[in-house]
Amino acid sequence: MKKDEPPLDFPDTLEGFEYAFNEKGQLRHIKTGEPFVFNYREDLHRWNQKRYEALGEIITKYVYELLEKDCNLKKVSIPVDATESEPKSFIFMSEDALTNPQKLMVLIHGSGVVRAGQWARRLIINEDLDSGTQIPFIKRAVDEGYGVIVLNPNENYIEVEKPKMHIQSSSDSSDEPAEKRERKDKVSKETKKRRDFYEKYRNPQREKEMMQLYIRENGSPEEHAVYVWDHFIAQSAAENVFFVAHSYGGLAFVELMIQREADVKSKVTAVALTDSVHNVWHQEAGKTIREWMRENCCNWVSSSEPLDTSVESMLPDCPRVSAGTDRHELTSWKSFPSIFKFFTEASEAKSSSQKPALTRRSHRIKHEEL
């Protein structure tokens, strides 16, 4: 027999969970020093999952704090002209993001539960902060003189409790004959009883019914990327803008390119994709976009080949090279040193008006295929 589920009432701090990050950035139990245990209660998968999600929410806030305190980024509310009462989101940027005359780095994570500053929640909880967050990218970028903007493409709506529906009682219709009214009341009581029984089965803990209020002009990752481009990146002073986009972030970048092609081409120097899920055919990216991507983008994909080994592509867009790992969520962290090298080479090539090193690499790939 299935055990009764304990209340879905979880702590709202890391200390409450009795976990903390050690000096290596690994999440460990305060008392035992053990890594996080998902199956805290046997046979209660849903409860364990809810506990994991509650911890995940705390991790999200913890990473936001690190972005401000550890990386010295500031939190900027969007939409920029939001009224007091409307739903809002936010991004993070360095003090010099809009004024740095040389270079700006823009970071975009993938889809799902991750928020600004994260690559993968699973890595943060089970491995460490370095592999699972964007913090190493931010710190190195700042050290190398980049301004930084961190997008928050999954923060598309706020959740509020659904207002309770008032169901008009059939006895309100006083002009009906008493007998008919009684019969209707009986039916409505039966219906309510059935509904309550079903509700208890479906939602045993009587969790609140929530509804979503979407954030204006930021209701999807694609919309968010275009919004941040128009209101921040396009206004920045930087001569060279660089993007690092993981997984669905790559699709959002291609969508931005489709919507703002001329602007992106004039401002963006190079784009590092990590296991991007973009598709130039499905997204209907035109020939000029595909050509630009071939020259200025590189996709570090999950592969068992050594880091930077050329990987064949079925699609006519940017060169693909191995990220040095076959785990999708680790591709950003594993290709970290190569991405900075790629950006430096692209910058140097642009300033000496030579073709980027990547173009030579892509020609080499073409010849090898022939």
From TrEMBL:
InterPro entries: AB_hydrolase_fold, Arb2, Arb2_dom. One of its GO terms (cellular component) is nucleus. It comes from the Eukaryota. Residues 177-190 have a biased composition (Basic and acidic residues). Residues 10-307 form the Arb2 domain. Residues 161-201, 351-370 are annotated as: Disordered. GO terms for biological process: neural crest cell development; regulation of alternative mRNA splicing, via spliceosome; regulatory ncRNA-mediated heterochromatin formation. Pfam families: Arb2. GO terms for molecular function: siRNA binding. Residues 358-370 have a biased composition (Basic residues). This is ARB2 cotranscriptional regulator A. It comes from Nannospalax galili.
